[in-house]
# Entry
Amino acid sequence: MGIIAPAVTAMPSLGGQPGAPGVPVTAWKIEKLTVAPVKQGVRSLTASVLRLSPLQRIDISAQVVLSKVDDAFIWEDRLVLLGEAGRASGVEIFDLARKAKVDWFYCYQPSRISDNWIAYKEFYHGAAQGPVVPIEVLLVYDLARTPSENRMEKEPGQKFPLPTAEGSDSAVEVGVPVYPESNVRLRSYQIVFETVSSGRFIDAGTFALLPSKQLIFRCTEQWPSMGIIGSREYLVVVDLSRGLDNPRYHTIGFPRMGKHITNIVRIEADTPRTVRLVFPKGEYNVDSMVVALPEF
# Structure
């Protein structure tokens, strides 16, 4: 899937250092990440990671689905890569001790929201017959769980990682559904496509996990064949303080800043009971808006 991209190299970064996300005991430095094309949908990864104490360099070579690495970090002994995979996004996870891949999957807009949680939208094929809109599903991958534990449905005896560019459901139906409520209640990866009622799009660019373990983001509802015309927007608060398997929900309305969907740069914690929506400077008559959080 997607087109073959030229070789790209990610900038070095630090991971797992004291006081930062990851393990406070071991410090790592990602020295090099290079992705080069092999064939349609498959690339070759070359990675070099330096363990600072005790000093040790670990080199990894593997086939991946990523055409571009947007984010790279280390959690415990796992190297995690988030990036583009053709028309989708992808996540690749490696065991540094074994110098081997342990898991990978397709998704949309993955984002690290805590030390060991990655939030993303479930993958679906955007092209469909006729005027339809999806009700997108929000999933969370927990690095503290095994690849098998991060899949609610799997074939008996299935082994991980899957072959690179595998097209099975196990390459897309990955993680714990935390929104919408129907997917959580039914423990289902099923994505509903609406032909008459409005669909729902999750704005992953606004993900913010608060210290209270409440995940907040913006949603928009759109009608088939109408695009953003007549669309509705609101904030969703998913309370994950009881764990990924027991979320609670609230929606919050907020004033629209103009005729179109509000341009939100980010959502950030303001006080224990409020968040701040940050807008591009000069686009509206205010640069931010404070929104009160609901009681759970």
Observations:
- Residues 198-296 form one domain.
- The first strand starts at residue 8 and ends at 10.
